[in-house]
Amino acid sequence: xxxxxxxxxxxxxxxxxxxxxxxxxxxxxxxxxxxxxxxxxxxxxxxxxxxxxxxxxxxxxxxxxxxxxxxxxxxxxxxxxxxxxxxxxxxxxxxxxxxxxxxxxxxxxxxxxxxxxxxxxxxxxxxxxxxxxxxxxxxxxxxxxxxxxxxxxxxxxxxxxxxxxxxxxxxxxxxxxxxxxxxxxxxxxxxxxxxxxxxxxxxxxxxxxxxxxxxxxxxxxxxxxxxxxxxxxxxxxxxxxxxxxxxxxxxxxxxxxxxxxxxxxxxxxxxxxxxxxxxxxxxxxxxxxxxxxxxxxxxxxxxxxxxxxxxxxxxxxxxxxxxxxxxxxxxxxxxxxxxx
Length: 340
Ligand SMILES: [Zn+2]
Hints:
Elements: H1 4-9, H2 15-23, H3 37-40, H4 43-53, H5 58-66, H6 68-73, H7 77-81, H8 103-106, H9 111-118, H10 120-126, H11 129-145, H12 149-166, H13 186-198, H14 215-228, H15 230-243, H16 246-249, E1 250-255, E2 258-263, H17 265-274, H18 278-300, H19 316-330
Helix pairs in contact: 2-13, 4-12, 4-18, 9-10, 11-12, 11-14, 11-18, 12-18, 13-17, 15-17
The protein binds zinc ion (ZN).
The site of zinc ion (ZN) has 6 residues, from helix 7 and helix 12.
């Protein structure tokens, strides 16, 4: 059986903030209700998938543009699945620091070599995001080869999610929510709160997607870049917290019927400045990475003519499957809980 803690910690965009904002409420007479994530959550993943479409070459752009809403909306399906599907949680992260100080030299990049060294149980226990990106790219390539509209849409949407996660520093460490350093809540601060407050001001001109020679190395490089930023992510939050009066760190906002506590805009802006725009930088990097992996899967599939796939909606079967996922998620007791 998969490690239960993995289910509780697959730290993904927005959902942590739901926990944070729903539970860290203060003594308000107003009822505390779960926030509907469809209204404001999952923001970053959707934005990344959406903007990645605009990096694609003309041969791909028509099909992806026609399905822009699908690819945007279903950027968050993997998060919706994580409590219901065993094995899903660990696809979103890798606790690379579990493997020691020089982990990137120690952990083989190849799946079979890593299994041989650590066992698959260990790999699954500490997260598999770089390998899962590699597997998903292969699935997407097969979907292009067979010109299967459903699978192209599904896998393109989902690989965008995992690539997005791999660009988040706190998806690469055991201290994923600052729980080991007294900074609980930092996960949602970095990847949800800041994004929600600032993403409209970010520059999304990221250029054109490019062919990726080695998807596995590409995924690992993204994880390594993310992990290199973990120290700054943690250190600056602590410095800022220590330098500000406590009542400047948080604010209270009305969300539907609930009054919730969340990080203040002043704190978020100051934190972003200390990180010198890291959140925007990682988001831009994720966008071009998603576009490039989509493009690479298409090239490796032999550059199939996608114009024959336009004017064809996804099948009723796929829409039914996704509707069921949505209903399961909406009724899940875990909805809105994540990270700890
Ligand atoms: Zn995720």
